[in-house]
Structures are given as C-alpha cells and as structure tokens.
Amino acid sequence: FKPQRPKNFPPGPPPLPILGNLLQLNKDNPLKDLDRLKRTYGDVYSLFIGPRPAVVINGFKAIKEAMVIKAADFAGRPQDMFLNDLSKEQAGVILEDYNHHWKEHRRFGLKMLKTFGLGKSQMEDTIYVEIQHTIDALEKSIGKTLSPDHMFHNVASNVICQIIFGTRYEYDNKLIRIIIETFAELGRVANGPWCVLYDSVPMFRKIMLPIRKAFKTSEACKDVVTCVVAEHKKRRVPGEPRHLIDCYLDELQKTKGEDPSFSEKHLVPYIIDLHFAATDTTSNTLLTGFLYLMTYPHIQEQCQQEIDQVLEGKDRASFGDRINMPYTQAVIHEVLRITKTVPLSVYHYTTKDTELMGYSIPKGTLIIENLASVMNEEGQWKFPHEFNPKNFLNDQGALVQPEAFIPFSAGPRKCLGEGLARMELFLIMVTLLRKFKFIWPEDAGEPDYIPQFGISMTPKPFRMKVELRLTK
Ligand code: HEM
C-alpha cells in the first residue's frame, strides 16, 4: 500500500499508505506547503496525491525547461480525474489531452477571437459596451460604498458571451446564474477533500454524495447551454456567422463528418470551457487590481496623471494607447504578478518518458506547474515580495517585461485568451481610472490582501468608495 517512487524520480517527502502526502498539504490553501517543500527538496520534487505520484515544478528555470524546451513532453492533460469525468469524454479544450481534437479546438478558438475583433476596433467596441454598463453602475454609487464583485464578473462574462452567443446577459439571467452556480459548486468540490478522494481511490467514486451532486449540477448546466444553442441554431443562416456558435456549426458542415473532432456534442463543453476560462480569471485580476489601487493611492494617482496626459482631447482610450502609457502598463503587469491569478496553472501530464533537471519522469505523470512560485521568485524581480510597478520599469521609466512574467503560463498550452485578457484589463482599468477616483472606505479597517485559494485566486470580499473625476 505504500507508494514507491520510480528510479531517479524527483525526491519528496515520504508518503503514507493510501493517503500519500495529503496530510502535509493544507486543504484550504496548499501554496505555503508547496513552497516549504521546495525549500527542502528543490525546484523539482514529487508528491503523492493519495497513491498517485505527481511532480511539482517550481521556479522559472525548471518551468521553462518543461513547458517550453520540452514542450511536447509536458503538454498532456490527465484524463482520469474528477473534472474529466464531469465532461464525460466530451472535453472542450482546457482538459483535452495533447491530441488532434485539442489542436483543432485551440486553433478554432484563436481564430474566433480574431474573427470577432481581437486586434481590431470591433473587440474594443464590445469591451466598451460592457465598460459603459460598469460606469452606469458606478455613477449610481457616487459618494456611497459598493461591492465590486458582480460588477467585474459581469464585464468579463459579457465580453466572452458576446463572442460565443453574440449577446450580453444581465447578471440575473438564467443562463448566467446556472453557469455561475455550477462553477461555484464545482470549485468547492474540486478544492475539497472529496475530489482528492475521488481522484485517488476510484472504488469510492460511485458512492460519494457531494460528487454525485456536482455531477447533477454540471448536467443541469449543460442542459441549459444546450437549449440556448438550439435557440441560436433556429435563427442561423449558413455561411453568415453571427457568433462562435454559428462559426462552429459552419465548420461542422465544412468538414462534413470527415473530422470527428468537430461535432455538436463537443460544442456545449467547448462553450462552457471558454466562458469558465475567461470569466473568473479576468474578474479576479480586476478585483485584486482595484484592491491594490485603492490602498496604494499614490500609484493610482500616478496612473491617472499619465492617462489624463495621453488621452487629452480623446473620447476614449484605444488599446494602441498602451504604448504611450508605460507606467499604467507596468501597474497592470504588476497586478497580474501579485494576483497569481491561476496559481497552479491547469494540471499537465507527461506524454512520454522524459527528463527534467536531470530527473526521470515516466509517461503519464501528473505535473503541477507552480506558477505562483515564479511570481515572487527571488532573483527574478527587483521587489519580489511587494506591490511595486518598478518590477516592470527600467531606470528611464520604460516598460520592461522580465522573461519570468508568465501569469498565462508558457508553451503550447499557454492561455488561449491572453490577448483578450490583456485588452480587457487595459481598457477597463484605464477607462475607469480616468473617470473615477477609487477610495478605500474609512470604516473598512486594514485591507486583507490574502486571497482565497482556488483554480483562480479570489480576493476576500471588500467594498469600494467612488468619486467622480470627469463628468463627461
Ligand atoms: C487574467 C486573465 C487570465 C489568466 C491569468 C489566465 C491564465 C491561464 C493559465 C495559467 C492557463 C493554463 C495554461 C497551461 O495549462 O499551461 C490558461 C488556460 C486557458 N485559458 Fe486563460 N487566463 C486568463 C484569461 C483567459 C481568457 C479571457 C480566455 C478566453 C478565451 C482564456 C482561455 C483559456 C483557455 C481556453 C485555456 C486552455 C488552453 C489549453 O489547454 O490549450 N483565458 N489560462
């Protein structure tokens, strides 16, 4: 029953029978424990999640060797875990293994972002529609305090909904509600002990009640999305796509069953994947950004000075303006660094027997890419442990992007939505900072910067006070 490390496998703490090293990891937030183990065993070490061996990769050098230099060896995804079983062999793109289906859906996703405006003013227009809704909400709260949670979630959700469905939804819409509830439910289960038990002791799988509930919620979510797709299908004119769903159906017609990767049954999980990947990540980064901007008012003011100067006489910012805003850009980069938005990336899997930093790693090993360890790695940053935009500025005040800046990961599985996320963060932050001053409420006490751990790091709920800067 005691798990054994294969020959020349990375070292790690001795495992217990059945449980492996689970008791050595804090179930609410394992990041500190992973850091502690790194100090003992080095940048590449192994752990047993139950009886399953996993290799944890820390620090920029080791991550680069795995994800970039030996990219194809480390680009798989495990296929026998709770989240895979949820998608019942109809994976979209995030959890799909390194295969033809993944490649085609990734290519298609990138094409969709371009088709619907990335790199053109069309995407800026889409984002601006959402910003206007945020501005309306903020204007109603001038002089009062408000909770920004839903506001940023709404923006990020609606930008991706415009691409997928060609429409925006109010926060209380049935589709959006069920998607949010499903992710919350799955997030709770995925971060908790039930999921670990599910992944490590398959014989218990069928009898675990919380797991069965999560499966039911996920099915209900798929049913709602399926209905929405069916509605869109009724109004579709082949060859005249209005949104991603139309384009997918056109692609299906083009390949006429020759390429089984594209099939209607894959469309629903694909949509859910994209919405999931695009929403909490972007909104949690924005929330963290505004938490820091409120509590570091001198940094907020310096951004505002630069924004006022560059946008003087202009109605609105365009993404191209970022070139003339090195300080604001540095702040946005610093927000992404400090947020560690997706701290352990998405689990990878080795596609063949390989080597890393001199250790042997067999095919089919679970790989945990500790992106958080790079974001405050000593030697990579001027100020690894503080919020300081100088991490991204040289002595002349120009923007520099250290190689270790990999909040979107690196290599072939790198975030598909990086371009969209960067555009959203820039346009939303710049537009809101130009128009409003964000203030940490006097009665809010000391800010708590420690986020809740999850697939995406979520800041603890906070309130913000808003004052108007421009009346236009
Ligand atoms: C601040 C915002 C975001 C951050 C920090 C972020 C970060 C990440 C990270 C770390 C991964 C895992 C990469 C890996 O496995 O090596 C990922 C994957 C992914 N992201 Fe993002 N992401 C963000 C926003 C978005 C947006 C807006 C989209 C919209 C389309 C998106 C779509 C995806 C997809 C589809 C994948 C899976 C890629 C694959 O498996 O090939 N992300 N993201």
Automatic annotation (TrEMBL):
Q: Which gene encodes it?
A: LOC114437332
PANTHER family annotated for this entry? CYTOCHROME P450 2F2-RELATED, CYTOCHROME P450 508A4-RELATED
The similarity comment for this entry is: Belongs to the cytochrome P450 family.
SUPFAM superfamilies linked to this entry: Cytochrome P450 (SSF48264)
Its recorded name reads Cytochrome P450 2D14-like
Keywords attached to this Swiss-Prot or TrEMBL record, sorted alphabetically, are: Heme, Iron, Membrane, Metal-binding, Monooxygenase, Oxidoreductase, Signal
Its required cofactor(s), as named, are: heme
Q: Which Gene3D superfamilies match?
A: Cytochrome P450
- Mention one GO molecular function: iron ion binding
Q: Which GO terms describe its cellular component?
A: cytoplasm; membrane
What GO biological process terms does the UniProt entry carry, in alphabetical order? organic acid metabolic process; xenobiotic metabolic process
Keyword Ligase listed: no
What InterPro entries does the annotation carry? Cyt_P450, Cyt_P450_CS, Cyt_P450_E_grp-I, Cyt_P450_sf, Cytochrome_P450_fam2
- List ligand-binding residues for heme: C415
Tell me if Transferase is a UniProt keyword of this record: no
Please name the taxonomic classification of the source: Eukaryota, Metazoa, Chordata, Craniata, Vertebrata
Q: A Pfam family in this protein?
A: p450
Cellular location of this protein? Membrane
